[in-house]
Design goal:
There is one protein chain. The chain is an alpha+beta fold and 98 residues long. It has a domain at 20-81. Helices cover 28% and strands 23% of the residues. The protein is built from two helices and three strands; from the N terminus they run αβββα. The protein has helices spanning 14-18, 60-81, and strands at 24-29, 34-41, 50-58. Strands 1-2-3 form a three-stranded antiparallel beta sheet. A hairpin with an 8-residue loop joins β2 (34-41) and β3. The N and C termini lie far apart (41 Å).
Amino acid sequence: MKDNEMNIEIKFDEKVAEGVFANFANITHSPEEFIVDFLFVNPVPPAGFGKLMSRIIMTPGHMKRLCTAMQENIARYEERFGEIRNVGPGSPDSSSVQ
């Protein structure tokens, strides 16, 4: 272990470890924090039904580090599995991917 590394023991309950599914995210911010809401929005009728699944609040510094880590992980994923297609509403495939 390097001098600047530390071991952190992570404790969690089983319900949190199961995770939650989200197909939509909303991000807002103030000068002091970013708020990331993860939601499940029903893609089939009755459309418009949504539920907040998780809210994460973090400092701007943590948000920037998270974005960097996500970009690095997406690059590694695409190197291994191929490009992730960015399908959105109105695309020919949007009925099957949210």
